[in-house]
Amino acid sequence: MTTADADGNWNFDISRNLSDNVYKITVESIDPLGRTSSVDYQLTIDSFTPIPTVMLHDSADSGVKGDMITKINTPLFTGMAEANAKVSIYVDGVLSGEAIAGDDGVWNFQFTTALSDGSHDVTVKVEDIAGNTASSSAYNFQIVTQTQKPTIELVNDTGVDNTDHIINEKNPALTGTAAPYSTVKLYIDGALIAEVRTNKDGRWEYTLKADQGLVDGDHRITASVEDIAGNIAHSDPFLISVDTAISIPIVSLSPDSDSGISDDNLTNIVKPTLHLKDIDPDIISVQVWDAASDTQIGVATQQPDGSWAYTFTSDLTEGLHQVYVKVEDIAGNKANSAVFDFTIDTTVSTPVISLLSKDDTGVTGDNLTNINKPGFAISGVDADAHRVVVQVMHNGVSEEIELSHLNGSWLFTPGNTWADGSYTLTVKVEDKAGNTNYSTPLTVVIDTQIAIDG
Fold it and tell me: Domains in the chain: how many in total?
């Protein structure tokens, strides 16, 4: 209770502390005549304001939600404060603007000036209508408006050149770089094949699955990346060539080295040349190996006409030789030919021709006979003889007769009777390797007449 002064003014101090609330105060007065009157008064006690909150608005949180990273450099912020409180927004300690919280306590603030890329701290200070103030803790966020252009490369670039992008794998492993923790979409020939994530170092890797095998030929690989801020970038095209096939080479003697009968793999050339077929255009290595010792002999070379050949540099020994060829192409594919057998044969025996004993009339061994169709035996003919020819010279006229091997023997009998006179016979033998040799000439005299004296 209190008493008004002469001017009707009065004061009253509430002796107890009132908690924050809305109170109804009723003042009743009694004048000197005992008359009463009263009035009600509403009093609001507000001694503090809640600590405000601040965060990126969902519409400004590009990329991964809730990571406090955005590509928007004029972001919209939001938060909670006491209803109708004034909100002051500070970025890196500098006042950037103000907002008023709504009746629901929600406030929003849109930056109109672009913030720089990088890390920023946002704090808000509120003042309610009672004059109470409070500040939020710092809210750290990052603005990233640029992202790293993704790269693509092969984990294993097979072949002799590890930078030529030519491989012999249908399911290659790919790798590359982009911004850390980005999402990378991989496309081959325009078709999406995979979606991968980069690690903390910005690296990614992907190996094509079994059902994603590439056909032989050229392929175009591209990558599209979206970083955690939502920025998107595209790689340059990465071109590769898949080559998993290689032809099996074929080895033979070159025509110039195939003496004697063609294609019989017998030759009398001690430094023969090997001819190689089915050598692919992208072959970069052609090695000749000895099959018996499995050691490399030499390296074949491509000839002006595009063919491949190898000529031995040292004389080969008589007898059988076995070789094969190893080839490797630019993609790293390898293949071996079948073993090729060939024989070096440089010798042929000297044949001997003699008159058959049954036709050697008169004195034995004098090569005089009265048989005008005599028979001759040819000995010393090797088993690999290919051609045996008897050359007969008579009166300056030469005739060649090619013989046949009958019943294991070589025999010669003239087709027609010979006139009396001298006949010189020489045997020429040629073996399958093309070696030739001649007998010592044999002179035979046909004498079917006897002189009558007087």
Answer: 3
In this predicted structure, what is the pLDDT of residue 406? 75
Give 108's strand partners: 78
Using CA atoms, how far apart are residues 213 and 208, in angstroms rounded to an integer? Answer: 7
Structure tokens belonging to residue 212: 């994603």
Q: Please indicate, yes or no, if residue 170 is contained in any of the structural domains.
A: yes
Within a domain: 34: no
Pair (389, 313) in one structural domain:
no
Q: Is 448 in contact with 411 (CB distance < 8 Å)?
A: no
Mean pLDDT, to the nearest integer, of 382-395? 95
| The pair of three-digit structure tokens given for residue 131, joined into one six-digit string | 């004059």
Give the contacts of 195 (CB within 8 A, at least 6 positions apart): 183, 184, 185, 186
Query: Does residue 4 lie within any of the structural domains?
Result: no
Per-residue pLDDT, 453: 66
Predicted confidence (pLDDT) per residue in 226-261, tens digit: 999 999 999 999 999 999 999 999 999 999 999 999
In the chain, the largest separation of any two C-alpha atoms, in whole Å, equals: 220
Q: What is the pLDDT of residue 25?
A: 76
Give the domain range for residue 398: 352-446
Residues 389 and 427 in one domain: yes
Those residues whose C-beta lies under 8 Å from the C-beta of residue 100, and which sit 6 or more positions away, are 84, 85, 86, 87, 107
Residue 195 sits in the same domain as residue 272: no
How confident is the model over 55-89, as pLDDT tens digits?
999 999 998 899 999 999 999 999 999 999 999 99
Looking up tokens 């972001």, which residue turns up?
Answer: 75
Q: Of 242, 267, 287, which residue is a domain's last?
A: 242
Write down the pLDDT at residue 11. Answer: 82
The DSSP result for 286-354, as a single string, is EEEEETTTTEEEEE-EE-TTS-EEEE-SSPPPSEEEEEEEEEEETTS-EEEPPPEEEEE----PPPEEE
Domain boundary among 242, 269, 296: 242
Give the CA count within 13 Å in the CB-facing half-sphere of 187. Answer: 13
- Asked whether residue 405 is assigned to any structural domain, the reply reads yes
Q: Is 8 left (phi over 0), alpha (psi -120 to 50) or beta?
A: left
Residue 182 has pLDDT above 60, yes or no: yes
CATH of the domain at 280: 2.60.40.10
The model carries a pTM of: 0.71
Give the mean pLDDT of 93-120: 97
Same domain as 236, residue 167:
yes
Same domain, 177 and 194: yes
